[in-house]
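debug: dumping io for the single-chain case to check the tokenizer round-trip. Nothing else runs in this session.
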Amino acid sequence: MNICIIGASSGIGLALSRRLAGEGHRVWGIARRKEALQSLERSLPAGSFQWSAGDISEVEDMASATETMRSKGFLADAVIIAAAIFNDDLKDGRHDFAAGKRVFEVNVFGVMHCIEMFLDDFLAKKNGHFVILSSIAAFRPGSRGIAYPATKAAVSLVSRGFGLAMRGTGVLFSTVYLGPVSSPMWEGKAGFPVITPEQAAEKISKILVSRRSTYYIPFFSTMIARMSRVLSDRMYARLRNILFK
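debug: decoded output
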């Protein structure tokens, strides 16, 4: 299978690139950091990983990346969108609009740019799979920032909306709600059962052979988040402090 991974240079995207290339898939990675992509290519079997450097929030970068892919005969069967950023847009009791705007540019509009660049090809061949990584942050406002949970709620509905609109076309959209993953974004208890990027990648890789539209990974933390939606935001914040802090 030909798989494009957007956000391939770090975190879950990096773990997915390594896993899928190691399983014999042809992987094309897109990320901003050219040096990280070069290093990843050298660490993988020859010919299993190719890449383009670019910012998913820039239309020109994505257009250039997809044109390079086509020119080299790489036609994606699946696109995994793992790129996202977190900016702390709440500082000293004030909101940093520029920081929040940047989160939207990458986490929402960047994802929509990515879909736009591949959707026509998928529709033409009546086959293709978008896997879009969201988060349980989509369910609740957060104490560290305004924009991040808002973008995860938005991108979830973007994915689900496309999935609804594309029914019967052969193009599938899968939305993955991730619980805590060990990364710089995780600020909870060291002993809380977070999963590693490699564990997340193992589970996400199985989605490529499934036809479901919604996934929750891992079970325990995402179950707590889903069940807690009956609580008020204030009550949930107290519960979160008990469990995670």
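debug: round-trip ok. Strands lie at 2-6, 26-31, 49-53, 78-81, 90-91, 94-95, 128-135, 171-178, 214-217.
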